[in-house]
TrEMBL record, chain A:
InterPro entries: AAA+_ATPase, ABC_carbohydrate_import_ATPase, ABC_transporter-like_ATP-bd, P-loop_NTPase
MF annotations from Gene Ontology: ATP binding; ATP hydrolysis activity
Residue stretches making up the ABC transporter domain: 14-251
Coiled coil spans: none
Listed name of the protein: Simple sugar transport system ATP-binding protein
N-terminal signal peptide: none
Naturally occurring in which organism (per UniProt): Aminobacter carboxidus
Keywords recorded for this protein, A-Z: ATP-binding, Nucleotide-binding, Sugar transport, Transport
A Pfam family hit: ABC_tran
PANTHER family noted in UniProt: CARBOHYDRATE TRANSPORT ATP-BINDING PROTEIN MG119-RELATED, SUGAR ABC TRANSPORTER ATP-BINDING PROTEIN
TrEMBL record, chain B:
GO cellular component terms given for this protein: plasma membrane
Alphabetized UniProt keyword annotations: Cell membrane, Membrane, Transmembrane, Transmembrane helix
Membrane topology: Multi-pass membrane protein
Species of origin: Aminobacter carboxidus
Taxonomic placement: Bacteria, Pseudomonadati, Pseudomonadota, Alphaproteobacteria, Hyphomicrobiales
Protein name: ABC transporter permease
One MF term in the entry's GO annotations: transmembrane transporter activity
UniProt KW Membrane keyword: yes
Residues annotated as transmembrane: 24-41, 53-73, 80-97, 103-125, 132-150, 170-192, 223-242, 254-270, 277-299, 305-321
């Protein structure tokens, strides 16, 4: 059972209104509106090139929308870079993970936010301790916090990116195909972590091409087709056939 | 064989090869060359304290340039203009120190280096031109500037405080050039290894997009590393002018290849993301020792160049092998 009884009571952590994004002449997103509430998991589905990653990048501040408003906890924000989104408690697991391969796991965990001691020098002890603690909590099996990311497997790398996001997020996590490259066990692990975010009252917007996964995790499903928002359905009140029809634009029989 | 075992084994293997090869090659190389010369040249004065300390004194400017280049290369950029910067800075310092005294001379030398770094950095960071092309152009440009500054004339530096401070002076029994080397290496190492700035340099060289979405300003960092390199090349210019008690447009002319070699042999990757200041120091001392030993062996200048070139080739081969793994 994934529906959360408190979900509808709380004010949305993220509110998108009439978002539109064009690249030169191409309209990547238009007329997009969506709300994500604390502790709610919303899935974003659509075919390749539908505009899902673009939408994630708009919310995370990498792209500025051509028009439309983004509201975070009731406050309208204009974000022009990723730092601002992070300051609002939004973390992203990008499709390419955004890891610095030759650096250690703990440096990646703290990339851009490294703690320093009284002399202004890196507090490695603290980074290592916190990384080890987190890795244990999330049961991400990596050889050591000192390992270079390039020496990790695909699943372990994904684990590091997700651990980083869950460590820093206070309101919202955006996941762009977090299990696309993973095996069965790793996928289950990631799904478990995503579900556990509900307890922390963090909103989740997850992109996935797996409808099984979407129906397992999401409270609501939002369908995009060629940059257009086709509709939003509560998971309990829809089925795969309807979602597939919405994604493809064809009726299923 | 079960696949889990195989992958564990290959992982252990790759750890071992990285551990041995890239990081420590410079120390083994240094030792090997030292032992070779110590044996072959034991009657030619290689092992005397005087000769060995001379090697350190002579490599001081190259070591200082190498520190700057570690920052630049770790950030995934390159600075080919350091040799020309040395000449411009030395000449600017020499002219100014004779005219306006010590402080003005120092400011002129370092300032010239920083300005060239600023020009390189602005073109790379904000006009978004590749650093290879930008610094290739400014290398030629400032070589020309250095020639025209004093019409190819050599400028003597007569200020004895200046030449003592940057050249022949001794403080607490240790030559000033060794002080400069030690301070630059220590400060450079701490900034590189132990500060957020150093971590961000490595991050942008490793994955600029990841660094950027992590809130690191990639353009600012690119500007900063090229200014560090320019400023340190300026300091190297002062050291040349101080030691030789004169400045000339030819200073630093042949240093670029030596410095790049020292940095790469020292374990800094050509494509960024990984490097070592201490490695660059040892690499630079190794190149200095190589020069010194080859001269003592009586090799002609052309043979010296060939041997040096071969060593650089070997170093680059090791570096690239490491990267492509
Ligand atoms: N920076 C850009 N410049 C121009 N066009 C872009 C840019 N980024 C995305 N697009 C275009 O916008 C559209 C949506 O791309 P997007 O990456 O958001 O799709 P997606 O839904 O994430 O697809 P996938 O499932 O393959 O990851 C595509 O047509 C793409 O070519
Ligand atoms: Mg995508």
């Amino acid at each position: 059972m994934t529906a959360n009884p408190n979900v509808n009571a709380a004010a949305p952590v993220l509110q998108l209104q009439d978002i539109r994004k064009t690249f030169g002449g191409i309209t990547a997103i238009e007329n997009f509106s969506l709300e994500v509430r604390p502790g709610e998991i919303v899935a974003l589905v659509g075919d390749n090139g539908a505009g899902k990653s673009t939408l994630i990048k708009i919310i995370s501040g990498v792209y500025t929308p051509t028009s439309g408003t983004i509201t975070i906890e009731g406050e309208s924000v204009a974000m022009s870079n990723a730092t601002m989104a992070r300051a609002h408690g939004i973390e992203v697991v990008y499709q390419d993970l955004a890891l610095a391969d030759q650096q250690t796991v703990y440096m990646n965990m703290f990339l851009g936010r490294e703690p320093v001691n009284g002399f202004g020098l890196l507090d490695r002890r603290r980074m290592i301790n916190e990384t080890e603690k987190l890795v244990k909590e999330l049961d991400v099996r990596i050889p050591s916090a000192h390992a270079a990311v390039r020496d990790l497997s695909g699943g372990q790398r994904q684990g590091v990116a997700i651990a980083r996001a869950t460590h820093w997020a206070s309101k919202l996590i955006l996941l762009d195909e977090p299990t696309a490259a993973l095996g069965v066990a790793e996928t289950a692990k990631v799904e478990e972590i995503v579900l556990s975010l509900k307890q922390r009252n963090i909103g989740v917007l997850i992109i996935s091409h797996s409808l099984d996964q979407v129906f397992k995790l999401a409270d609501r499903i939002c369908v995009l087709r060629r940059g257009k928002q086709i509709g939003v359905r509560e998971t309990d009140k829809t089925d795969k056939n309807e979602i597939i029809a919405m994604i493809t634009g064809l009726q299923q029989h | 064989m079960p696949s889990a075992n195989t992958s564990a084994a290959s992982q252990a293997n790759s750890f071992a090869s990285r551990f041995n090869l890239q990081q420590y090659v410079v120390y083994f190389g240094f030792l090997a060359i030292f032992l070779f010369f110590a044996i072959v040249l034991k009657d030619s004065g290689f092992l005397t304290v005087r000769n060995l300390s001379n090697i350190v004194l002579q490599t001081a400017p190259a070591t200082i340039m190498a520190i700057g280049l570690v920052f630049v290369m770790s950030a995934g950029e390159i600075d080919l203009s350091i040799g020309s910067t040395v000449a411009v800075a030395a000449l600017a310092a020499a002219v100014t120190v004779n005219e306006y005294g010590l402080v003005a001379g120092v400011l002129a030398g370092i300032g010239a280096g920083l300005l060239i770094g600023l020009l390189n950095g602005a073109l790379v960071a904000y006009v978004k031109l590749p650093s290879f092309l930008v610094t290739l152009a400014t290398m030629g440009l400032f070589a020309g500037v250095a020639r025209s500054m004093t019409d190819l004339r050599s400028i003597p530096v007569t200020d004895s405080t200046f030449t003592g401070f940057f050249g022949s002076g001794v403080f607490l029994g240790i030559p000033s050039l060794i002080w400069w080397t030690a301070i630059a290496v220590a400060v450079g190492h701490i900034i590189y290894r132990e500060t957020r700035f150093g971590a961000h340099v490595l991050a942008i060289g490793d994955n600029a997009r990841a660094a950027s979405v992590s809130g690191i300003s990639v353009p600012k960092m690119r500007l900063a590393v090229l200014m560090i390199s320019g400023g340190l090349a300026g300091l190297a210019g002062l050291l040349y002018a101080g030691r030789l008690q004169a400045a000339k447009y030819t200073l630093g002319e042949t240093d670029l290849m030596t410095v790049i070699a020292a940095v790469i042999v020292g374990g800094t990757l050509l494509n960024g993301g990984k490097g070592s200041i201490i490695g660059a120091l040892v690499g630079s001392l190794m190149m200095g020792m190589l020069n010194n030993g080859l001269i003592l062996m009586g090799l002609s200048v052309s043979d010296q160049m060939i041997v040096r070139g071969l060593i650089i080739l070997a170093a680059v081969a090791v570096s690239l092998r490491e990267k492509s793994r």
